[in-house]
C-alpha cells in the first residue's frame, strides 16, 4: 500500500511570553515550583497585538510552502483545526488561503477547505482526513495542508490560567512523505463528557481535576482499542511516545499508566517482580476499592524503578522540551510533542529512520486516539530547518500588567487597542475590521 504521512512540519509560536515562575507565581502568591515541577511548565506563549489564529496558521503554512518550494497548485486541500474560531460559519482555512494568496501568484480556488472541531483532538482528526483523502486516490497528485492553530486562553483567575498558550503547527501531507508515515491501525476511546467545554463562549468552562481523569480513562480505552487491531504493544517498540500535552505533568500521569499496561505479562514485568512484585490482578481482590488501592501503591513503586525512569527519560522526556516553554496549544499540542522528539533525535546520534513512534492524541468532551508512525529516512532535514528554539528565545517577556492587557486584547468580547511589543518582519498581520465585521489581514514586509 502507498505510504502516506507528513512530508513537512513548521511551527509558529505567539511572539510574547509569560514566565510562570518569575511573573505568574508571585502574583498568585504560589511557590514557583508548583508550575515548574508540579505542572512541568516554565512559560506560556501569547499572541502579540497583531497576531491571532489566522496569522499564526498562515505564517506557519507560508514558511512551510517556502521551504518546500510549493505553489498553490501543489495544495489540494487546506484543513484547519482549532477551538479558538471567531466565526461560526466562514472557516479559518478561507482566511488562511486569503493570506497566502497575497504572496503567491496562483490561488487556492481548486482546494477543498474546511475546519475541524473536537477540542484538541481536531488536529489529529484533520491529519486523518488528509491521509484518507490521499489513500482514497482523490488528491490528483496534490498534497494537503493541515494547520492546527489556537489561542488557548482561560478566564483570568481560572485554575487553567497557568496552562495557557498560543501557536500554530502546519503540516504538509503527501504520498512518500519525508518525515513520518502514519499507520492505518488506530484505536479510539470516546465518550460524552462535560469536563471542558465552551458553549458559545470564548473561555472554557473547566472541571480541571475531572478533566485529568477523563483524559486518562479515554487514553486507556484508546490503547486497548489500538491493541485490538495492531496487537500488544511493548515499551521497546517505540522510540518516542508523544502525547497531547496540556502541561507536562499530565503526560507524567499518562506515561506511567501506559507503561504499566504495556509491560503486563511481559519480560519486563518478570524482571521487575523481585523488586516491586508483579502487578496486582483484579481476581486476587475481594472488591474494586482494595484492587485500586493496590494498583496505586504498585504504580508509586513502579515510578521509582530504574527501568521506568530510563524509559521515561528516553521515550517521553524529549517530547516535552518545547511544550514546557510554550504551554498548551490545544489542537497543535501533540504535533508539537512529536516535533520536539524529532528535533531531539536529529540533534543527537540517534538513527531514527524506520523506527516507530506511538502518538496519543486527546480532546476534551472527550476522545483519545492512538496510532503509530514510522520515521522516514531524511527526516532530519525537515526538522533541522525548523527554528522553534530561535522563535522561543526571541519572544518578548511580558510583565504582569502587560499580560493583562494582552489577555484583554485577545478577549473576543472586548475591542481593546494595544501597541504591539514586537515588530512584524516578513509575516501576515491582523489589520483591523472589514464592513461585515470580518477580520482583515495583510502581509507586512
Ligand atoms: P491546580 O489546582 O492549580 O493545581 O490545577 P494542583 O493543586 O492540582 O497542582 C498541580 C500539580 O502541582 C500537582 O501535581 C501538585 O501536587 C503539584 P500532581 O499531584 O497532580 O502530580 N504541586 C507542586 N509541586 C512541586 N512544588 C510545589 C507544588 N505545589 C503543587 N510547591 C489543573 C491543575 C490541571 C486542574 C489546572 O491547571 C487546570 O484546570 N487546567 C486546565 C485543564 C487541563 O489542562 N486539563 C488537562 C486534561 S484535559 C486536556 O488535556 C484537554 C485540554 O487540552 C482541552 C482540549 O482538549 O481542548 C485542556
Describe the structure in your own words.
- With 445 residues, the protein is α+β, with helices and mostly antiparallel strands.
- The protein has a single domain, classed as Thiolase/Chalcone synthase (Peroxisomal Thiolase, Chain A, domain 1, 3-Layer(aba) Sandwich).
- The chain is 39% helix and 22% strand.
- It has 15 helices and 15 strands.
- Strand 4 (75-81), helix 4 (92-101) and strand 5 (112-116) form a beta-alpha-beta unit.
- Helix 3 packs across helix 4 and helix 6 packs parallel to helix 7.
- The longest helix has 23 residues, at 208-230.
- The N and C termini lie far apart (44 Å).
- The relative contact order is 0.19.
- The mean pLDDT is 97.
- 3-hydroxy-3-methylglutaryl-coenzyme A (HMG) is lined by residues 31, 33-34, 37-39, 83, 119-120, 159-160, 162-163, 196, 206, 208-209, 211-212, 215, 244, 246, 249-250, 328, 330, 362-364.
Layout of secondary structure:
Blueprint: E1 4-13, E2 16-19, H1 20-28, H2 33-39, E3 43-46, H3 53-68, E4 75-81, H4 92-101, E5 112-116, H5 122-135, E6 143-152, E7 165-175, E8 180-190, E9 196-197, E10 205-206, H6 208-230, H7 248-263, H8 267-276, H9 288-303, H10 306-316, H11 321-326, H12 333-346, E11 356-363, E12 367-375, H13 379-384, H14 388-394, E13 396-397, H15 400-409, E14 427-433, E15 439-444
Helix pairs in contact: 3-4, 6-7
The structure holds 3-hydroxy-3-methylglutaryl-coenzyme A (HMG).
What would the keywords be for this entry?
445 residues, 39% helix, alpha+beta, binds 3-hydroxy-3-methylglutaryl-coenzyme A
